[in-house]
UniProtKB/TrEMBL annotation:
<feature type="domain" description="PA">
    <location>
        <begin position="386"/>
        <end position="470"/>
    </location>
</feature>
<dbReference type="Pfam" id="PF05922">
    <property type="entry name" value="Inhibitor_I9"/>
</dbReference>
<dbReference type="InterPro" id="IPR045051">
    <property type="entry name" value="SBT"/>
</dbReference>
<dbReference type="InterPro" id="IPR023828">
    <property type="entry name" value="Peptidase_S8_Ser-AS"/>
</dbReference>
<dbReference type="Pfam" id="PF17766">
    <property type="entry name" value="fn3_6"/>
</dbReference>
<dbReference type="InterPro" id="IPR036852">
    <property type="entry name" value="Peptidase_S8/S53_dom_sf"/>
</dbReference>
<dbReference type="GO" id="GO:0009897">
    <property type="term" value="C:external side of plasma membrane"/>
</dbReference>
<dbReference type="GO" id="GO:0005576">
    <property type="term" value="C:extracellular region"/>
</dbReference>
<dbReference type="Pfam" id="PF00082">
    <property type="entry name" value="Peptidase_S8"/>
</dbReference>
<feature type="active site" description="Charge relay system">
    <location>
        <position position="148"/>
    </location>
</feature>
<feature type="active site" description="Charge relay system">
    <location>
        <position position="225"/>
    </location>
</feature>
<dbReference type="InterPro" id="IPR010259">
    <property type="entry name" value="S8pro/Inhibitor_I9"/>
</dbReference>
<keyword id="KW-0720">Serine protease</keyword>
<keyword id="KW-0732">Signal</keyword>
<dbReference type="InterPro" id="IPR003137">
    <property type="entry name" value="PA_domain"/>
</dbReference>
<dbReference type="InterPro" id="IPR034197">
    <property type="entry name" value="Peptidases_S8_3"/>
</dbReference>
<comment type="similarity">
    <text>Belongs to the peptidase S8 family.</text>
</comment>
């Protein structure tokens, strides 16, 4: 109350200054969050009165001299995932607005990016949830909403043969626009919308051109990323899917029976929070069951993170929100989209390889990978070509940036290009433009042995850092170095997989180390899925080839795999909460690879819990987890209280008032019922007690016994050590005591696990939680 009084005084001062300041300043987009309307939500349920309410804030803060109608500054009005709006404001106007009673927060719009490993231009599927399909009817009756670059509706992956009509609860629309109308939706693609206002506002010079020149002002996908992710989650089965002949096989989404709704929020220059929130606001109201977001930024506090804020109420309304963890690995604490109510997904490799060896003139053969179509490549790359590297002697030419290559020096030759700075396919285009005949992409220390491949416009292969060092040594050792690329087609089962992709973002979470993130890993390297039929599979303008499929890598590709699994679980268990769905996916995850050995990291070592969370998703087990850890929306608020968030910070996330001292008094010793266990010891703390509650979703009359592998240097005891259930749906609680007399030398984290093994009944359920202990030095 006191704070409000002070704010009122500030407000009158600021209003006086406004007209002067606003004239000199440019406008930018702000997202404004409001306190619930005094008249209650019912009073503003009608769209008109809601707009009036939102507009009234603008009328009080926008400089009247500049505008005929302050409401012309309004971009979006939000009312499902939170109450508020997005508007274009001068800095001083934003400050004035911030001071108005009823305003909870005003924050600048933020540009986020797609979580593919390189720009937007990318391109597999042999990840078979066969057992899960039978149990869930292939995801029938569920709706997966995909927030991305839109959709290419003509793709065979969105064919609706055999699909039932959209569920009756569905209230979404098929929004028309450039090259898109209602006839583009069907029983598979049941909805499509687009959101460009936030994006346009960032191109003030000629906003309409900035969007329309480069892409369709409609839900139609001009990039391919959205088509790819949507088809990965819930695409129909397409026989004989290949990328220009490579990787041929059946392509189908993880939940081929589920419906898809596309929300286009990303444009050529990225994805703006104001557009993303508008998409989430509609999607939740439209009736999606799962929201898939393959985009994000760097980790920021939850109360400033639009995805965290938008997904809080989405989750409370029963929508499972699945997000990509980001591609800033292997750096520690790089994981984004880390809110405890979302499912955060890292990327793993598949056991499929596309070998394309480099045979050097000295007879040495270096392993490389490529998806260049086999037939043509034999003709073009199959003979010895002169090898060149850094022909201009410049750093730009080492990385094959556009225009950096001397045409006379590269014409007809095989050009070595370092990875980095520009997109991988862009380098291929640069080499081709300069007259080069073939390309070898060379990993640097940064990429090590990471092998995300692309469709290139010329014969090309990608070699690891070790191979790159040998390659460059050879080039400098001989006056006329030569090499040829030998393409090996598609090989399955050649590699140890899954393994964590080097680029996959890692924990511990920067903003909240007491929840382990990422939650799981899923296939995200060299994934073949649907692609706009009018684009070359490289996504580049210079690519005249056409393909209905392409190959892409990134946590962007991993997230929709998990969205598909969530749809399968929702279909099998319609009454489950998002927390139950996530618990099922986490506690059933694999921690061993196909060879039965520990999952490896792209780094070469064993993958730790900060790289893979609970492990690699296993859809067949996830639909029948035995026990689940459920969480009520209010528990997340209590959790935020335990983290010391202020009343106002929590309000920005939960949109409800909370008195943390009262909440904490009522919930002494509270711990969030998360399916993984993360303990962050701060300020020399040596012990912690955690509570967990499991719900029996397996068989009646079942019993479970605990098994614990304590992290090195940590003592863990669990009580009770057995849990018995008579009924289905029954709950049992247990306590986990964690004691760490002293942190292990030279380490700031340690890991272990806790498993509930079913002893009675069919004895088949194994409910596993990873344990992560970190010591935070402050
Ligand atoms: C949608 O567009 C197609 C192709 O332009 C056209 O043939 C069709 O009549 C349009 N349908 C509607 C309902 O406008
Ligand atoms: C892509 O799919 C469309 C629709 O099924 C089909 O007509 C077209 O021939 C396919 N294109 C290629 C290159 O396979
Ligand atoms: C919050 O709760 C505490 C403990 O119940 C109480 O003493 C305090 O007055 C409450 N604060 C507010 C602002 O309501």
């Amino acid at each position: 109350m006191e704070a409000v009084g002070v704010l009122m005084i500030c407000r009158s001062l600021l209003l006086l200054l406004l007209p002067v300041l606003a004239a000199a300043e440019t406008l930018q987009t702000y997202i404004v969050q409001l306190h619930p309307h005094e008249g209650g939500r019912e009073a503003v349920a009608a769209a008109e009165s809601r707009l009036d309410w939102h507009g009234s804030f603008l009328e009080r803060s926008v400089s009247w001299e500049q505008e005929r109608r302050p409401s012309s500054r309004l971009l979006y009005s939000y009312h499902t995932v939170f109450d508020g709006f997005a508007a274009q404001l001068a800095d001083a106007e934003a400050a004035a607005l911030r001071a108005l009673p009823g305003v909870a927060s005003v924050r600048a719009d933020r540009r986020l990016e797609l979580h593919t490993t390189y720009s937007y231009r990318f391109l597999g599927l042999n990840f078979c949830p066969a057992g899960a399909w039978a149990r869930s009817g292939y995801g029938r009756g569920t709706i997966v909403g995909v927030l991305d670059t839109g959709v290419w509706p003509e793709s065979p992956s969105f064919d609706d043969r055999g699909m039932p009509p959209a569920p009756v609860r569905w209230t979404g629309v098929c929004q028309g626009g450039e090259h898109f109308n209602t006839s583009n939706c069907n029983r598979k693609l049941i909805g499509a919308r687009f959101y460009s206002k936030g994006h346009r506002a960032n191109y003030p010079t000629n906003p309409s051109e900035a969007v329309s020149l480069l892409e369709y002002v409609s839900p139609r996908d001009a990039h391919g990323h959205g088509t790819h992710t949507a088809s990965t989650a819930a695409g129909a089965a397409v026989a004989g899917a290949s990328v220009l002949g490579a990787g041929a096989g059946e392509a189908r989404g993880v939940a081929p029976g589920a419906h898809v709704a596309a929300y286009k929020v990303c444009w050529f220059n990225g994805c703006y929070s104001s557009d993303i929130l508008a998409g989430m606001d509609d999607a939740v109201r439209d009736g999606v069951d799962v929201l898939s977001l393959s985009l994000g930024g760097f980790p920021i506090p939850l109360f400033e993170d639009s995805i965290a804020i938008g997904s809080f109420r989405a989750t409370a309304r029963g929508v499972s929100v699945v997000c990509a963890a980001g591609n800033n690995g292997p750096a520690r604490s790089s994981v984004a989209n880390e809110a405890p109510w979302v499912l955060t997904v890292g990327a793993a490799t598949l056991d499929r390889r596309f070998p394309a060896y480099v045979r050097l003139g000295n007879g040495r053969v270096l392993y490389g990978e490529s998806m260049y179509p086999v037939k043509t490549s034999l003709k073009k790359g199959g003979k010895d070509l002169e090898l060149v590297y850094a022909v201009g002697g410049t750093r730009e030419s080492e990385y094959c940036l556009k225009g950096s290559l001397d045409k006379a020096a590269v014409a007809g030759k095989m050009v070595v290009c370092n990875r980095g700075i520009t997109g991988r396919a862009d380098k291929g285009e640069a080499v081709k433009e300069a007259g080069g005949a073939a390309m070898i992409l060379a990993n640097t220390e940064v990429n090590r042995q990471e092998d995300s491949i692309d469709v290139h416009v010329l014969p090309a292969t990608l070699v690891g850092y070790r191979e790159a060092v040998e390659l460059k040594k050879y080039i400098s050792s001989t006056p006329r170095p030569v090499a040829r690329i030998v393409f090996g087609g598609t090989r399955i089962g050649q590699a140890r997989a899954p393994a964590v992709a080097l680029f996959s973002a890692r924990g511990p979470s920067l903003t909240n180390p007491s929840v382990l993130k990422p939650d799981v890993i899923a296939p995200g390297v060299n994934i073949i899925a649907a692609w706009p039929g009018n684009l070359g599979p490289s996504g580049l303008e210079g690519d005249a080839r056409r393909s209905n499929f392409s190959v892409l890598s990134g946590t962007s590709m991993a997230a929709p795999h998990v969205s598909g699994i969530a749809a399968l679980i929702r279909s099998a268990h319609p009454s489950w909460s998002p927390a139950m769905v996530r618990s099922a996916i986490m506690t059933s995850a694999d921690i061993t690879d196909r060879r039965g050995k520990a999952i490896m990291d792209g780094d070469g070592g064993r993958a730790d819990v900060f790289a893979m969370g609970a492990g690699h998703v296993n859809p067949a087990r996830a639909v029948d987890p035995g026990l689940v850890y459920d969480i009520q929306p209010g528990d997340y608020v209590t959790h935020l209280c335990t983290l010391g968030y202020t009343h106002m910070e929590i309000f920005k996330i939960s949109h409800t008032g909370v008195n943390c001292s009262a909440v904490l008094q009522k919930n002494r010793g509270f711990s969030l019922n998360y399916p993984s266990i993360a303990v962050a010891f701060k300020n020399g703390a040596k012990s912690a007690v955690l509570q967990r509650t499991v719900t029996n979703v397996g068989t009646p009359n079942s019993a479970y016994t605990v098994q614990v592998a304590a992290p090195p240097g940590v003592k863990i005891s669990v009580a009770p050590t057995t849990l018995s259930f008579v009924e289905f749906g029954e709950q049992r609680s247990f306590r986990v005591n964690v004691e760490a007399p002293s942190p292990p030398a030279a380490k700031d984290s340690a890991e272990g696990y806790l498993v509930w093994k079913q002893s009675g009944g069919e004895g088949k359920h194994v409910v596993r939680s990873p344990i992560a202990v970190t010591w935070v030095v402050e």
